[in-house]
Each structure stands twice: as C-alpha cells, then as structure tokens.
Structures
1.
Amino acid sequence: MRKPLLLSLLVLGACAPRPLTLAERLGLPPLDMIAVEGGSFEMGDVFERADDDATPVHPVAVAGFRIGREEVSAAHYAAFARATGRPYEPYDERPPLPPAVGMTWDDAVAFCAAYGYRLPTEAEWEYAARDGGRAVRYAGTSDPDSLRPFAWVDDVTAPGPHPGRLKRPNALGLYDMSGNVAEWVGAFYQFYPAPGTAPDWHDMDLLNMRIARGGSVYQPPDFAQTFRRMASLRDLAASDLGFRCAADAE
C-alpha cells in the first residue's frame, strides 16, 4: 500500500539532516558544553539579603539547558575572528591560551550564534554557578577562606586572565564561574521583582544596559559571589570581561 502524501513528507522531514551551523561550515573548533538539569531556586542574595541589586530574593524556575564548561578561550575566538574578518588580537598567544577578552556584548552574541548557541540568561548563569541552585556563595564553595582553589581573584598584578581549568570546578563541573574574567549574560532582570509580582525580563531592544557576572582576577572576592551583578553598556570591551555560551537542552 502506498503511503499518503502527508505521511511521506513527514517521514522525509524527520530524516532531513540538521543544517550546519556557521561554525561547522567554517571548520571552527567545537566548544565543550555540559548539560544542566532544570529546577527551581531562590535567586539573589540568599545570604545577607542586603545587596540592593540582588534583592528581593525571588523564586525562579529554570528549564534544562547546556552551558560551556569553561569561558570561551582566546583560541576559539581568534579562529572565529579570522574566519569572519573581525579584528581580534589575543593578549598572549602562547598556549594554553587564556579566555577571550575585549569583546563587546554584541561580539559575544555573534560568536555564540555561530555555533547555534546563545549567551546564558542571568537566571541560568546563577543557577549553574550555584551548583544547580544551591545556596553557594562562590562557584565551588561558600567559605571565603577556601576560595583560592576555585577562583582567580584579587590580583591586581596579574598580566591578564589565566588559562582555563587550572582551578577546581564547581559541583557541576564548570570552571571559573567565579573569578578570572567577568562574563556577559544574555537576558536579565532590570530590577528584581517585588514580592508577589511576576519578574520582568529586561527588554534587550530598548536599552543599552547589560549585565556581567562572576567577577574577575583583578576584582576582590565580593565581586565573585554567585549573586553579584555588574552593570555595563553593551559596547564595553574590557581586558577582564569575557563570556561563555549556552543553549537550550537537546
């Protein structure tokens, strides 16, 4: 018996190959992404509840997603820049290369999009940094005296960010969520919601303000706290500001 035309088309569509991403077409090296199971957590300053930018603490539900195991490296971004004709010079070209820095928010968005990815939302970033929403002050520990094995912080003499994977990862296997380079995030709350009200995401098309998370090697440990928010204009390109990519769950 011949299959109905509609069923035949559905079968053919299911077998159609996935379109190649720009990164695949350009032969760019793949990124190491890990899956994070979704869940609910209390977002914000769950410790002192005193940070004006991270209060009031509010419940957030996060769907499963994927996120880069480490910050995008200078090697990855340099390959992308060469292939797409973007200006970029890593501050240190000796391997192993440190994270890519000096990109605007839009540069970071373009890089992730080339892989079919995006920047993590602010809620996803905090959820991942906090080991899946646990009350963890820094990525990997809540004890300031135990921070050094997990994070590059508070070193104004450092010539630049350090290569990834030199410190210990957090419980999800993510490196440098606290310290080394601050990280651009995608969608974010302009202000945290008042009790009893639904949170509103920032309208990315209206204002130029963006958020970075995690603190950097040059900043004190306070900036490396998992709830700490740092506001910036989207066109800032700083020597201690990078990013990691994210994507919806497969």
2.
Amino acid sequence: MQEMSPAREDVVKLIFALSAEGHAVTNKLLVEALRVSAPSVSVMVKRLGDEQLVTRSSERGIALTERGDTVALSVIRRHRLLETFLVQSLGLSWDEVHEEADLLEHAISDRLTERIDASLGHPRHDPHGDPIPSAERPHDERRGIALHDVPVGSRLRVDRVRDDDPQALRHLAAIGAVPGAVIDVDERGPYGEPLWVRVDGRAHVLGTILAGQVHGSVLPACAVTPAEDPR
C-alpha cells in the first residue's frame, strides 16, 4: 500500500470511530464531522475505495475493509501511545495531549512507536482510559454506558473519558471523575439534567453534555472501591 497522507489517515480513523459508536457512516456525516466541503469528502471516499480501504452500500453506508481497519488501528495505536508518553514521560496533563498527539501520530515511524510502547511498559490504556490497540490482543472499542444514562441510585466505575474537550477534561479531573473512579448517581433533574453525583464522597452537579463525556460500567451494590479498581 502506498504511503497515506495525514488527511486520508484522519478520514479512515474517523470512519472507524463513527462505526464503533454505531453510526451508519455517510458522506454527509463526514462533511459535518470534518467541516470540509461535500466535493472534498466525495473525492476522499472515492480514493479510499480505489485503495480498497472502504466499501459502500445502501445498508451499511461507508465501511472500512479489513485493510482499512488495519490502517485505522495503526493510527489509533500511535495516537494513544503518544498521549500516554506525553503524560507519563513529559509531564503534560491529560487535557493538553489530544491535539499534540493528533499532529504527531502522522509523523512517527512504526519503529519509534514500538520503542515508545516498550519504554512505557506496554500500557493497555491511555490516560483517558481508551484501549491501546495491539496485535497481541483483541481490540474492543466499545465505550460502555455514559454517565448521563446511568439510573439514579446506581454506581458507575469510570472506564473511559472522551479526550477531545480540554475544558471538560480539566473540570472532570478537578472533581476526580477519572478512569478507575467510582461515581454514585444520586438524583436527576427534570428532563434529564442536571445530574447530582458523588465522587469519593463529595457531591457535584453535572450537565448532560459533561456527563456524556464519562463512560464506564454500572456496578452492583457491593462494588469495588476506586482503590480496588481491577485495571
């Protein structure tokens, strides 16, 4: 396969992400997500089809081929390893690394990627809880239930937090809503918001958008504490 441009890698990664969240990917959806013109997306999708990276059908929309999945997972692996490296080795905070990794993911070689992975001790998750793809294990991109959908009276163990909103990440970090934390959902206001929650015994109020950034697993009544988080 010929070397791919950063723009084409971004589109493949986006198709993977949208598909993983259950969307039927269309040209219109890509136009909205990428904020580019419809003709530009049409040309890009056609080129990806010519390279056997995507297929198109009326039922599934635009879908990645096995080859396209391989490319997407490679880009995602580089991105998440870079985020982990920037936090653990360079001391950046988790709200600073997404944009940096977006730029660097297209520039580093496979050799450097593997050296970074080894230097970090082969991490399974990035700082936001996102799983790091590896040929050594199956990859599961599912996010789990969003905090704003958790029933009142339940507890959520945070597994993943979306990484594309720095302001949201700063606020969530300040209240302790990070991967491994356990959040108690106490009360929901009219029409689904705001949401009253407790993190480590402290009460907080979250709007629907902010609560939608946090994903995880609903725990039974005798759940593990944050210190006992199995990850």
3.
Amino acid sequence: MTAAAPALDGVFREHERALWGLCYRMTGSAADADDLVQDTFARAMESPPPRTDIPWRPWLVRVAMNLSRDLLRRRKRRGYVGPWLPSPIETPADAEPPSWELVGDEGTSTAGRYDLLESVSFAFLLALEALTPQKRAVLLLRDVFDYTVRETAAALDLGEANVKTTLHRARREMAAYDATRRVPTAELQATTRRSLEALLFHLSNRDTAALEALLAADARGLSDGGGEFQAALAPLRGPRKIIKFYTTIAADRGLPVRLDIRLLNGLPAFVCEMATAGEREAKRFVIRCDLGADGRVAAVHSILASRKLTAVRF
C-alpha cells in the first residue's frame, strides 16, 4: 500500500456521506449515487489534484458534479421504460437528513431556498428531473447547499455570469413546484400517514366511493417498474383509472404479507412484500402518496424496479 492510500482513505471517510447526498439529489437514484461516489474516489486514486495539502472537498465536489451531469445526459439519451420515479431513501425522524451539511466554503450551515429534507422529497426530485443537468447542478449548489456564486462557478467550471443566468432560468422552471410546494413538516407527515392507511383500507374493501372521496379530481398515479416488472407504462390520470388499476392488482395478487410504514424521503410510505411473485411481478415494492393543498391525495406512486430500492430495508 502506498503512503497516499491511508490518507485517501481518510479523505473518503470524511467526505463520502456529503458527496452521496449531493449525487443522490443530482440523479434521484440511490444506486447511481453509490456508483458516482465510488467513481469520484477512483479518480482521486488515479489522478489526484495537483495539491493535496489543501482541503479536498472543492475538488471532490467538482469531480462528482461532472460525473453526475454526464450520467444524467446519458440517461436522457437512453430514455426510460414507463414513468420515471426517484429512488426511495429512508429519512427517519431521529436522524439527519441525507445531505449531511454539504455547505459552501464560506458558510457554516445551510440556509438555502429549499431546506435539506424538502430537497429529497419526491415532489422536489421530480421537479428537478425536468431541468437540464446544468440547471439542476446550479440550483442544488445555490438554493439547497447555499454555495456562493463564486463557489458554484468553481465547482461547475462555469463563469459567474453564467451561474447567475442559469440559476435565474432554473428558478423560473421551478415556479410550478414553488407554487404548490409542501415542506414535509410533522403535521404533513401525520396527515399523509392517515391518508395512506385510508387508501390501503379502502382498496382492501374495494370501497370505490371512499376512494373517490380520498383522491383529488386531478390525481395522478405513477408506477416505476423500470422495464423489469409489470407496471403502468403511462401515468394514470384521474381517480377512476387509479382506482381500477390498484383494485385490479389487489384482486389478482391479494394484499402484502409484510407491510411497514416508514419515513421515506421525508414522508410516510408503505414498504411492502408479497408472499409470492409470478413472472415479471415485483415481490417487493414501495407505495407512497403526495397530498394536495386541500388534503386529498394528489399523487400515488408505486416503485417496483429493483435498482430503485437499493436504499430501502426489506
């Protein structure tokens, strides 16, 4: 082992969690974040920065952001089978949010436009998915991690004027999210849990009237099977289609033999396991929902793809 290896191991341990939080937000994928962090430290082993006597974090962030943007561009070129949903990650109430305070060099705490827990919510990550990789990177560094314009420019190899212009455009594209944003407070968590439990109860009883009352008129259902498992290949729009889809599944497959409610991405979600699974049927999956301003269920999400569930304990 070279003399540099122990030092790099210490660097890895010091920065791994913060870089993972950054890469997860960039990609919306826990598995991709794992790979990107490993790739970042592989680069550090193969081609370390010219100076290793100064803090490593700016260099590591620059590498991780470049790798993340490259991955996002490849993902957009490849396309995706069916609706894309983020990977669920566990965010227990007694633990830090999965950002681990990746702040700019000139700051001591995050005080951005979006707080740390909100920035891993499904609603926020889905809004980010509509941005270009560069807009996403600038928005995260400036509005989540509270980087200065200068720090953001250095991390992304951009001019400061470009950072300002890109941020302005990214914020404009986030306007629809901002207009309906719901920060995952304890009150929202409790309300969401009650709605999830009601959703499952009414589905098990096939109570169509109760389900229609629970769902918003413009509710959407999204299922992410990633091409691996059977799932709705297009968004389900409106209560009737959502109810028919889930009641048909419940009638065919029955209810899960294991059903846990956990805080995932800031809000309660069902972690489910079926007794058996046929060909192209998911044995394990996550079901979650988002509520609208009126308290009714505005979105129902099913995450089935195995690669999307790497950060969830079963």
